[in-house]
Structures are given as structure tokens and as C-alpha cells.
Protein 1
Amino acid sequence: MALWPRIRFFLFLQDNHGNNYSQKTLEYFGSAGPGMLTNRCFHQSCPRHKDSGISLCMLASGSKGNSIYVSDGRTAILVDAGLSGIEIERRLKSRNLRPESLDAIVVSHEHEDHIRGVGVLSRRYGLPVYISAKTAAASPRLKNLKKAIAFDCGASFKINTLNIHPFSISHDAADPAGFTIVLNQKKIGIATDLGIATAMVRHHLQSCDLLILEANHDPEMLINGPYPWHLKQRVNGRTGHLSNQDSRILLEEIQHHQLQHVILAHLSETNNTPEKALAEVCRAVNPLYTQLTVSSQDICSQLVLLNSSPSESLEVCNV
């Protein structure tokens, strides 16, 4: 009897109140097998970690709001703050993360689902906002920031111990940016809200240990869905969003044995499902060394720790 290759995916289904989470597992049998998804639930926990690497939490991902927490134990930042200030505080606290420990906010572009809470959090906690000049000028909400620090795409900058490199992406915004974050030879790549994966994007996302990658829509669901035609064209255009297939093709080009974790982000609630995104993108992933997960709009993720020691593997912590 043939043995079908089996890949296990983890959907973040834990609550936001500090309780033990329930984690839903999807098992996908490779293209040579039955090609079906099955579900089961289990509980998992792990101890708190020392400051030995980079920790990351997807606070929210989707068209209603986006925010990513990144810390090495000494420096803590938000990449975008697209929820209300109160909601971001609530989600941070649900993972035992203190808003008072934040050092800065980094803004990718000016769309509301990425900047809604930037101003209030900056004022409340005295946080500098790292943002390109064109992005800051593109939205009234961003024009009166008290601690704005300008960056240019293509020029690296440091926030305390974190080395950050912004790079240009293709999206319908003034000066949209993706980012890589490097510490102790560990590299995180962030590429969401982009219509095409340019040669520049592929270059910067090479050699990542952890990758946050957009998988916005399923093309058939988009075409047959309720969006008006002009919006379908925008989403599917060169300055729109990557489809599941686009993400798979990009990942096939940049995957390597040290890529420990891929988090699919910015899934459309109307034109995609986690199952469709996972089933498509998993074709580019070797489950022997890469874990594939999906971020959520409504529920913040587990805290993921990317260890600095090459002998240690990526860990997922329930806090």
C-alpha cells in the first residue's frame, strides 16, 4: 500500500484572554495522495523563554487590521499598528506582552488597516514612528506624528539591537515597503500587500529563517465572488495583492533548508480560506524543515521564538 506524504499545518485558534489555547491542526496529504484536509484539536504549552533569539507574534492580519510584534528581549517593536490602540494593547496583554516595553513602531504604508493605532500608541507610550517621508505625507492621520523618524527604502537602519532593512514593493500606496529584520545571523522577512514579487522582493527574501508572506486570495473565488469588477482588477493587479498561487511560486524560488517557518498573511475573508491557502502553498514547502501556518484577522497568534543558536529549532510558546 502506498504511503502518502503528510504535512501538518497549524491554525491559530487560541483565545485572547491568556487562557490555554486550542490549536486546530489541518493535515494535508500530498498531491500524489487523497488530497484532502482533516481536522483535529489538541493543547500545547511550553515554558517562557530567555532572551536567546527573536520572538514574534502576529497580533492581526487581514483587511480589517494588521500588526506584528517583534522582539529580541532587549528591543520590542510593532511593524504596523492597524487596529485601534485599545485593541492592540488588549492583544499584547493576552500574550503577556507589555505595551510599555515597546520601543518603536515601523510603518509599511499609509492604508488604514496598517496605521489605525499608530498615532494613539505613539502618543500614549512616547514611541518613535519609523516611516518613509512619502508615506507620512500621504495620510492626514500620519502628518502630525510627534516622533517621526524617516527612512528610505533600500537604506538599512537600526532600532537599538534590531537591524531593519526596508525594500520597495509593488502596491497602490505612496511608498510601500517590505522589511527584513536581522539579529545574530537570524533573518525575518515580511512581505505583505504586494501585487507582484519583483526581482528586488525575491532578492531580499532570500536566506530568511522565518518568512511572513501574503497569500491574499484564491483566483477562482475572487473572479466568482461578490466584489465589483474594478475592485477585482485592483486586487489581482500589479499593485494589488498576491494570490495563493503567486505565493507558492515565490516560495518555490526562495525556499532553502534553513527556512524554519512560513506564516501566510493578509488572507481575504471573502476571497480565500485558510484551507485553500495552505493546500496551494504547501506544494512549495518541505515539511521536514519548514513549518507552514496561517495568521488570523480576529485572533492573535502564539508567540513564536526563533532561537539564535543554530543548534536549536524554532519553538512555539503558549504565554
Protein 2
Amino acid sequence: MESAISTGLIGLSLGSQYAMIAIGFTLIFGIMGVINFMHGGGYVIGGYLAFAVSSGMGLPFPIAVIGAAIGTALIGYLIETFFVDKYVDDHNATMLITLGIYLVVTTVIIIIFGPEPVSGFSFPISGVLRWGGLYFSYSNIVVLVICTTTIVAVYSLIYRTRYGIALRAMADNRAIATAQGIRPGRMFPVAFSLAMALAGLTGALVTPILVLEPHLGEGQLLKAFIMVILGGLGSVAGATIAAFAVGAVEAYSSVYLGGSKGALVLFIIVLVILLVRPSGLLGREARKA
């Protein structure tokens, strides 16, 4: 019983990490109609920025994490402004542009840091919290608290501020929102920055615990696709629920079935849910290309 509860806590931590990535990914798709292949790159950039600031410059890890989130937000703003904005209504073009930028970023990272996982980059807090038969690492506790707090802040921004109302209006009907005075040229770069910052913050927090190498983005992008499709295209709440569900399935299946079988179980569950509900858990009709 204690083992099952401890595994559930790990699943919660994984779910909070995945939710950060999934929310950003679905936010961009829901508002802009853009499938951002650079989103996984934001996770990788966040990790390498945190590594450069903490290990290279010798600054405290919290400052490195904040710097990574700000840095990826700035990169997201520049990508949207100079590359994506002109072609925001051409979905094929934006997919190719963001994919091309991701490949360029990966190559630059390999040139600067090398193709191998970095060394000397670890989470500053170690040890395990034990209570009876339960155990939960301090690093996972910190990640869970920070990610959950950030998710709550993002939901507050989206649902309780004028800016959030404008974002949701753009997602529901861009033409009507524009006619009412909401300017896409101001909304899109900030939304893109927010999404990239979420990915970068997650990468800065998680890669010291796991591993940091140039090709991490592919796996994160794949998981983002799974969670967004499972939750329903364009649904932030659906992506969040799907993220925690994926985290729980991944934790329990990995512990009790093993890594490869756990991945198989995850894909089977996703397929079954999509067969029963093709639009996803909280899905709506997808944008027409």
C-alpha cells in the first residue's frame, strides 16, 4: 500500500511537469492555430540556460531557473515576432518554420555544449522524505510545488484577467475578437512567450534531476502531442487533466510493469480513449486548416 501511494506521489510530480508543457503547447494551438515544433526546444533551452548560469557563471540555482524562464520567454517572443507572425494563418508554413528553428537550435547546442549529456549539473537539494513506509524525494517535492503554483498562476491569468479574456476571445473567434479591438499583433507574441517560458521553466527544474542532452526536445514534444490530443485540441483544462493522467499511468506502469511495457500501456489507453471519444476528454471541433 505504501509503495502504491509513493508511486502516486511520483505520478503527481510527473503530471505537474507534463501539465506545464502541455498547457503551453495547447495555448499556442488554441489561440494561434500553430503547432509549435519548437516547444520541445524550449524545454531543452531552459535546461541549458540553467546549466550555463548555475555551473558556468556560478550563480545560485534559483536565479538560474528564473533566468532560464525569462530567457526562453524572450526567445519565444523573438521567434513569434520575426518568423511565425507573418505566416500565422498558414499552418503548413508555421510547422515547417518551427521545426526548422528547432533543428537549428539543436545544432547550435551541440556545437556549444557537445552531443553528450552534460556533467556537473545536479539539483541542489538531495535526500528523501520518509514517513512510515512512504517516501518522496525532496527534489520531486520542490518540482511539484513550483509547477503546481505556476499552473495555478497561469489559470488565474487566463480566466481572471482582462488579458486572459482577450486570449480566450482570440481562441474562440479571432475575427470577432479583432473587430472588437483586440490586436493579434500584441496578443500572439506574449502568448508565445508565455508558452515557451513554461517549457523553459520545466526544463530548468527537471533536467538536473534526470539528464540534460541536446535531443531531449523530441521526447517532450511527443508527450505534448499525446496530452493535447488526449485532452482535446485547444482545451487547456483537458490538456491539464491528460497530463496528470499520463503522469500517473507512466509512474505506475513503469514501477509495476517496466519502462517499455509502461510506454505500451500508455499508448493503448490513449487509443482506447480516442476510439470512445475522438475529440478527446474535453475536446472541441478542431480548427480547419
Protein 3
Amino acid sequence: MKCVRLALCVLGLQLLTQLSFAQTERPAKPPAQLAPRTVPNQVQLFIPYKQYSQEENQRILKLYEPLRVSDVSDGMDTVGLQDIGIVDESIRPLWKDTENFTHRIVGIAVTARYVPTNKRLARTTDKDVENWYDNITGEPYMDVLSQGSVLVIDAEGDNDTRSIGSTNIMDWQKLGMRGVITSGGLADSEIIYHKVPAYYKRMGRGFRPGRNEIESVNRPITLGGVLVRPGDVVMADGDGVIVVPRERAEEVAKAAMQYLDNVGLERYQKQQGKKP
């Protein structure tokens, strides 16, 4: 009888251990609105996604360090990309630093799209707001931001919504983001205080719950009439914003160097301590 009891105790301990392990190893539940990883046959995607290594991204970005938007535009013309990538002037800097040009951005695009929602909140409780931010209008692109990224947000149709504020933009910057560019709205003057480079189309006052939804991350988007794909090179300064197709990025940078003026050379030498 004692042997039977001992065997039952051992079996019980094994079952408890397996149950505990299963509970601790269970993967986190994805957001309720996350689409299936497999795309059904009825959905057709035609612009492919290409992954680039961090080493390759940094190599390309170094080529653009001394350049201005106007130089890159001239480089695009030189290689036969006339009127390609020039973002509409309605996308403008939130602030400018005319001494050190710290409002300038050059980075690798991480893209996101917010769309107007067709849902409404019956009331705005803390639980409702938390559910929206967790499952409907969150910031999943934080998982793919890295050193040298520029976050490009297509939020053209979400009206008076502030998808960008001082709190989240600082969180993004901690992940290596160099700046953010949006066709939608932003808010909070603290962005100016913290000197995070930001380019926008309009101010936004309403928060995201009940107003917009995250549609996709790292899919092709449009910004001021220009196609932006994840991995493209995006540059912004006082002259506006320009997007360089990644497959032509090295060619464009080398062509643009001939247009670099003395101001650009001086700025580069001041920042890098050497000639380009």
C-alpha cells in the first residue's frame, strides 16, 4: 500500500510540474485584431518586402551623412529618377534648428498605416481605452524600430487625431529611431522641447481610441504623394522630405556628392571631424 501511495505522489508531482511549465512557457496572446500570418488566396500583395541587415543599413546611411535634401534631389535627377521621391511640401518640420540643423533626418524607413475607424466607443472608460491601445490602435512598429530607423506614418485620413505625442515619440527614440514623419497629426509642444525631429501635416487633438486603427506595419504606404517602402532611405530637412528607392540608394548618394556645397562640407566636418 505504501508503494502505491508513493507512486501516486510521484505521478502527481510530475503532472503539477508539467502544468506549471506549460503555463510559464505559453506564448503571449497576440492582439485580438492581429490578422493571420498566412494570407488567404483572396488577398493579393504585389509589392514584396525585403529585409536588410543592420550592417548594410548603416553602410548606406553613412553615404548620406554630408548630404542635404536638395543634393539628393539633384542626385536623383542625375541617375534618371526625375520627380521621383519628392514629398509634397505640406509635410513640414515641427521645429527647426538653424544653427546645428538637428531637425535634419536621414534614416531607413519603418512604415505604418493608421486608418479611420468604423467603430465607436459608447463611453470612454479606462478599460475601453486600454483595450483600444492594446488591440485596435496600438504601436506594433516598436518591435521593428532599430538604430537608424525613421518612422514614416501614413495617417492621411484619420482627421483630428494625435497619433504622435511627446510620450510615445520619446519611447520610439530610445529604440534608435532618428525621427518621425507623418501625413497625419501630432500634438504636445514637449516634442519641440525634447528636440526630437518630427515632420507632420497637421496638428491633432483627439486621442486614437474611437478614431483610428492600425492597419499595417512595414507595408508600402504613401506620404505626400510618394511611395515609401520599408527599407527605403528617407531624408528630411528645411527643404522638405525626399524618399530614395533602396535599390538605387548607393547610386543616388554617390551622384549627389558632386552637388555638396561648402556649407554642407563644413557641417559634415564639424560633426564627423573629417572630410567626406
Protein 4
Amino acid sequence: MSAEASSSTPRTERSDFQATSDPALQEGADRGEVNLLSYEQLYALWERQQWAVSDLDFTQDRVDWHERFDEEERFQRLYGLSSFFVGEQRVAQELGPMMRAAPTEAQRIFLCTQIADEARHVAFFDAFYREVGVYEGSASLEQRLDAASANLNEEFGQLFDEALKARVDRLAVAPDDTEALVEAVTIYHMVIEGMLALTGQHFITDYNEREGTLPGFVDGFTKVARDEHRHVAFGARFLREMVRTDERYREAIVRTLGEVGPVAEGVLRPKWMEGIPDDEAELFGFSIADTRAFALQALTRRMKVIGLA
């Protein structure tokens, strides 16, 4: 049985996940001891890790959503699902200027693969929403995205539509502004993908596997997570190179994390949990304090490998 197919091996310990070299998956990262893949190796890994949304089967997922989940459970699940659906669409539209601003051809080639990945992730969530009937009667991707956006909190907009977009808009008119690119990669790869996305994927997938629910979604979501680890590995290599190049890039990373860190923590908390203490607010069987600790450990490992912790 392959590592990917084995049910006894934790996802992040599977060979296909370990192959990404994402520091968060390596205990050696606690000591700064991780060999990051080169941009060329990351591209080759992308070629080996292809998958297709059309291969996924959401038949049982539709039964689970309409017959197994009650209204309250569907409501609670929608925050996490909506954050990913809309988040994938937001980052997909921001990658173009970042790709054009990348200093080397190898970096630009890899970022082109990430654009393709993010488009596939949007298609994955759209297929799930459409085939499962999350929003019955919605006729288009745009309608489903609009409906999903209503579930998001204020911090989501601050992170995606303000902090990230401001850097990307700057790169669109000044692609040689490497400091803006460093800030954008910090927000995109380290915070949005590294802290938020992979934390959410970990807890949501674990919950569905324990409950035996949404098998088609779990299949696709696991592949999305593998892609995200590959993207984060790119971000770690790029930022490590920039830190070693000039002290001002180190300062840009620290400054950016200080700006968006509190906002990112807010994204982890659904708006209907306002006023509930972190250790009491639970989603998918874990507290907000649990999810925050998981995200912080992952960020700390990556920062050590980059050279900041």
C-alpha cells in the first residue's frame, strides 16, 4: 500500500507531505535544521503531485449534508468552509503581480504553478458546494461566493482585502519594489497559507475523519493541504534568501507579522463566537486556544528556518 493510501500513517507524516520540505512538518525545524527544496525541485514536485477535481465523488457528502447534519451543525461548518472557499478565490486573484515581481525566472515559474493550484482549489470548493447543494438554487460561482462571504468576520476582510491587497496593488505598479514583495509573501505564504489555511485544514479534516463524514471533501481537501505545504515551502525559501541578502528584509518580515498577526488570530474565531473565552469556544471538537497554539507552533518553526527566531 502506498504512503498516500495508508490510513495508519498521519497525513503530515506521509511521504508526499514530507516531500514538500515545509518546515512546520519537520521536528528538526525547532533547531533550524531543515533542507528546503530549491525552486526547481518544488516545480518538479508540483508535476508529480497533480490531481483533478473531476475525479472526486461527492455522492456521500450530499447525503451527509442534508440527512446526517442538522441545521445547527451545517451553520457551524459553514464558517470554516466559507473561509476557505472565499479565501482561495481572493488569493488566486492576487498572485499575478507577485509572480511578475519575483526576481528570478525559477521563482516566477514556480509561482505560475501556484496560480494553477489556487484556481483548482476554487474549482474544488465550487464543485463541493454545487454537487452537495450547500446553497440550493445558486446558479453560478459568483452567487455561491457571495453567499459564502456572508459567513465571514471583519478580520477576514482586513487581512485579505486590505493588508494583502495593498501590497499586491503596490507590486502591480512597482514590480521592482522587493520590500513590498517580501511583505506580500509574508502575508500570503506565512500567515494566510501557513498559519490559517493549514491550521484549518488540520482540524477540519481530523474532525471529518473521526466522524466518518464528507469523504469526497476529505479526499480533495487533503490534496489541497498538500499543495499548500508546497507553497509554504516556497515562501520559506524565498524569505530565507531575502533575509540573508539584506537586513531591511528581516525588518520588513517582523514589521508585517506585527501588523497582521492580531488580525490573523481574529480570522480563526467565527463571528458568532464573540465574547466566549478562547478555552471555552469550540469548533470541530477543539477550542480556539488549541487552534491558536497549533498555528503558532507552525509559524515559529518556519521563522526559525527563515532565520528570525
